[in-house]
Amino acid sequence: MFIVDYIKEVYGAVKSLLTGMNRTGYYFTHHKEIITQEYPDNKDTLVLSERFRGEVVMKHDENNEHACTGCTACELACPNATIKIITKFDVTPEGKKKKAIDTFVYHLELCTMCNLCVEACPTGAITMAQTFEHSVTDRSKLIKKLNQPGSKIREGVE
Amino acid sequence: MSASVIIFYIIAAFILGTGILAVTTRKIFRAAIWLLFSLIGIAGLYFLLEMNFIAAVQIVVYVGGIVVLIIFSIFLTQKSGKEMQKPILVRQLFSAVATVIGFALVWLLISHNSFATNSTSIVDVNVANIGTQLLSTGEHGFILPFELVSILLLAAMIGCIVIAMKTKQEQL
Amino acid sequence: MFSLEGITDAIYSWLNSTFNPTIALLIEFAIVVVCVIGLFAVLGLVLVFMERKVSAYMQIRLGPNRVGFKGSMQTMADTLKLVLKEGLVPDGADKFLFNLAPFVVMIVAMLILAPIPFARNFQMWDINIGVLYVTAVSSLSVIGILMAGWSSNNKYSLLGAMRSGAQIVSYELSAGLAVLSIVVLTGSLQLSDIVNSQQDGWWIFKGHIPAIISFVIFIIAVTAETNRAPFDLAEAESELTAGFHTEYSGMRFALFFLAEYVNIFIVCSIGAILFLGGWMPFHIGNWEAFNHVMDFIPSSVWFFGKVFFLIFLIMWFRWTFPRLRIDQLLNLEWKYLLPISMFNLLLMTLMAIMGWYF
């Protein structure tokens, strides 16, 4: 019947509105739920989530060795040409030439933190770091060289 | 000259000034706004006379209703922001003549009939009295006009509904 | 005991004993104007801050918390910024109307303030058609909005103004009917009479369920009339880029912003007067002792407490509900609120005739 449907509709509407108001009213009275981070003040206690992606870094171990073979998979995977790998050829003791990286250039100003390079890397050489305070006074400072000076590829990584 | 007379002349000048602006401006939206101010001025005059009810009704009906309707229809027309072209000379002449004749008529009426000021019997015009008078069947009762107007409005409303009603599309 | 009535009486008698009546009257006018402008400024600062804090807590945020104690000076800083900003006028705008519109909106808000009783015997103008006056004058505020929207010469502004006009004109009906249902119970349009009729209990309690229904309808309708979310499709930031005040900047924008909050204050005080007894303390029937205890709280505190409670309620709506579409908005008014409030008014009239209220 029309009038019953009408009343039911009004009742349902009022009920759903009250449910919503109940939720916001709960948040209004429970201040411990607040999720705002007062950033510069809580710098020491700031906890970033595990999946937060700040910038691309190359992992180096204590012997200053990394796992990058210079395969350029990350360079190919990058959608906006953030990564530029300059390779060189090392001569192994056996006299064979072996491809290795000379410079891993990373343009932070172009990076969208999409994580595709990390997923593309076959050896797990690069990863996403949690640093996020990237502001500098000059744009050229955003072009980074990821492999540390004097570093070399770890033994056994092909 | 007492303060109320000064206020009366200020309001009257306001009404006349905005009225003249309403008919002389060449932008149609501005004409509506000047008309609005003129009507508000009339409401102010009613307030000055302490006829509060009629003043409020003036604002509700004319300002809140009719002028808003006019403004809406201006919005829906094209070229509402453009200046209108100047009326032709003949039309200007005729309207001037009509104004002069109208003014003369009003002047004649005012000068021939004197307004007797009787401050003795002031009608009590609170809303309750207006309401009972409006619905009374006795002497000076307004029940008949009231009902007539309501029938008229009902007819207008039904007419609107009939015009606006969608006919069901015939199934193909 | 502290009371606003005592202060006004003291000022009145001092003025009349010092100056001749005409000058005393003029000075009184000046004092009233200064007080109203001061009230507006304070209301703007307080309500904007309140809105920002309430919205923040409802969205699990902190809100402004840097300027002053817990951010309490934030609105002051914002006002200073707006005052110092340049007021731009668009090239194709109708400059006269563009400049006039914010003042029209503001003056209308000032006019509505006149018959509102803020405390016991503390009222600017006790006009005998109080409620009708308020409804009449508040219908003027739509003119300011239409003027602003049209004179900006911007399609978004015009669309916003037209939406706002349609919305205000249609919601005025149900707001008026809700107000009428209390007028039927009181038998008077005078606001002081309405407050005095709630001597032994507020209408929302005395009028049973119909009074509660008309209270709810009133709150919904005035939320729509003041163009606030969930009925803010006149200024819908995401679709119309702020609607009728898109082109306004600097102090003129501040006036619109202020007028919005002052209008909220006004409609909430009307709601408080009609349904919650205005400045009347919480009284229960014949409980003399209880009523006497309640009288110790000053009437102005009661009034502002109720008004701010209603304002909080409207803010609560704003930060909970999503915006309505224009067809939903008109459906709500014409298919739900209007029939319900008409039926409610009939019920209320029956109650008033039979005397079924306390």
Question: What features would you describe in this structure?
Answer:
The complex is a heterotrimer of chains A (158), B (172) and C (358). Chain A is α+β, with helices and mostly antiparallel strands and 158 residues long. Chain A has helices at residues 2-29, 73-77, 116-120; strands at residues 55-58, 65-66, 83-91, 97-107, 126-129, 143-145, 152-153. Chain A has 2 domains: 2-33; 55-153, Alpha-Beta Plaits. The model of chain A has no long low-confidence stretch (mean pLDDT 85). Chain B has 172 residues and is mainly alpha-helical. Chain B folds into 2 domains: 1-83, Four Helix Bundle (Hemerythrin (Met), subunit A), CATH 1.20.120; 123-165. Chain B has helices at residues 3-24, 28-48, 52-76, 89-112, 127-134, 143-164. In chain B, helix 1 (3-24) packs antiparallel against helix 2 and helix 2 packs antiparallel against helix 3. Chain C contains 15 helices and no strands. In chain C, helix 2 (21-58) packs across helix 3 (74-84), helix 3 crosses helix 12 (250-275) and helix 10 (208-225) runs antiparallel to helix 15 (326-354). The longest helix of chain C has 38 residues, at 21-58. Chains B and C meet through helix 2 and helix 3 of B and helix 5, helix 6 and helix 7 of C.
Topology:
The complex is a heterotrimer of chains A (158), B (172) and C (358).
Chain A: H1 2-29, E1 55-58, E2 65-66, H2 73-77, E3 83-91, E4 97-107, H3 116-120, E5 126-129, E6 143-145, E7 152-153
Parallel strand pairs in A: 2-7
Antiparallel strand pairs in A: 1-5, 3-4, 4-6
Chain B: H1 3-24, H2 28-48, H3 52-76, H4 89-112, H5 127-134, H6 143-164
Helix pairs in contact in B: 1-2, 2-3
Chain C: H1 4-18, H2 21-58, H3 74-84, H4 95-113, H5 130-138, H6 141-151, H7 155-186, H8 191-196, H9 203-206, H10 208-225, H11 237-240, H12 250-275, H13 288-295, H14 299-318, H15 326-354
Helix pairs in contact in C: 1-2, 2-3, 2-12, 2-14, 3-12, 4-5, 4-6, 4-12, 6-7, 7-10, 7-15, 10-12, 10-15, 12-14
